Amino acid sequence: MPNIPEHLRQASIALLESSAGSLSLLQDALEAAGLKNTRVLADPANGLAWLLENTWDLLLLDLDMSRPGGFEILRLLRKYLPENQPILAVSCRNDVESRHRALDLGVSDYLCKPVDHREMLLRLRNHLSLWFTRLELDQERRWLEQRVEEHGRELEKTTETIVRCLVRVTEYRDNQNGHHMMRIGESVALLARACGCREEWVGQLRVAATMHDVGMVGIPDYILLKPGPLDEAETQVMRRHAQLGHQFLSDSAANPLLQLAAEVALHHHERWDGSGYPAGLKGEAIPLSARIVALCDVYDVLRTPRPFRPAWTVKEAQLYIREQSGRQFDPELVRLMDRHMFEQFESLRLVWSD
């Protein structure tokens, strides 16, 4: 008898035949080889149901059954079972057409009656070994996927910690309340979702948007904290915050979130008509991320009191947004905001009030 390795002897082996079949005669040979976990299914219909409802490792299938036939059972099994689940067909038909038909339907091997017990055990051993190897590889793959997922969550937590630190520094330097950053993140997510953007990207933009003004940490205090309007020279210095923010964030080429934040930081002061800065981009040449952040940021800034002016009213801020459609802002985004968003943005201001 062929040597069956110990780990293969635990395999669950099913034998499906008709009541007048001969596979049950093979059970003794299987058990003599150490394969004790065998089950003979003598009724085709009930046996098919059992195979579909239970876990097993290898099937010896008698193709010479009728009602339902062996080929029909094989077709149904391959429809619902894993592609590599080993099925060894046994038949008295040794013609080429029958063998080709069985192989085309997905049998792992084809044995002719009368079955040579030694040949059967050798083939069975090889297919079980391959099947168990595949199961081990699948288990290893799932473990690796789990580790990658866990690593991704750890990296995401680390990135969010870095983001919070950057945002706090920006708030401290720019004398802003942190709720402004929270509102920008949440309002940006609302508008991006209304645009039909992928949820994964929406989540990234929600975090990236809170870093849009991180370049402010490089602006001198006498300009950043000036209580009144800036003169021309001071304005030019203030505008450098867009490029500074991009420089701070763009070194993280392997981190898509920080790359998105760098893009937003650089372009959130571009204008739809091309009169913005720093690159003077126009229309859809401006990244969608920056167009969304620009619109949400301006609305929230207008509705927030500043040292040199009171907060604009809801009516005044919304009128300004509409007037700047096609000038400062993407007209399609303004339409979405006008149709769905203003009320939700005001609700955010109640939740994240200063």
3D architecture notes:
There is one protein chain. With 354 residues, this protein is an alpha/beta fold. It has helices at 27-32, 44-53, 70-80, 96-104, 117-174, 178-194, 199-208, 221-224, 232-249, 256-267, 288-302, 314-323, 331-351; strands at 13-16, 38-41, 58-62, 87-91, 109-112. Strands 2-1-3-4-5 form a 5-stranded parallel beta sheet, with helices on both faces. β3, α3 (70-80) and β4 form a beta-alpha-beta unit. α6 (178-194) runs antiparallel to α7 (199-208), α7 crosses α10 and α9 (232-249) runs antiparallel to α10. The radius of gyration is 34 Å and the shape is elongated.
Strand and helix layout:
Elements: E1 13-16, H1 27-32, E2 38-41, H2 44-53, E3 58-62, H3 70-80, E4 87-91, H4 96-104, E5 109-112, H5 117-174, H6 178-194, H7 199-208, H8 221-224, H9 232-249, H10 256-267, H11 288-302, H12 314-323, H13 331-351
Parallel strand pairs: 1-2, 1-3, 3-4, 4-5
Using the coordinates above, name the CATH class of the largest domain: Mainly Alpha
List the strand order in the largest sheet.
2-1-3-4-5
**Rg result:** 34 Å
Model regions low in confidence, pLDDT < 50 over at least 5 residues:
none
Beta-strand content bin: 5-15%
Strand/helix succession: EHEHEHEHEHHHHHHHHH
DSSP helix fraction: 55-70%
The CATH topology of the largest domain is what? Hypothetical protein af1432
Shape annotation: elongated
Number of helices: 13
Q: Quote the average pLDDT.
A: 87
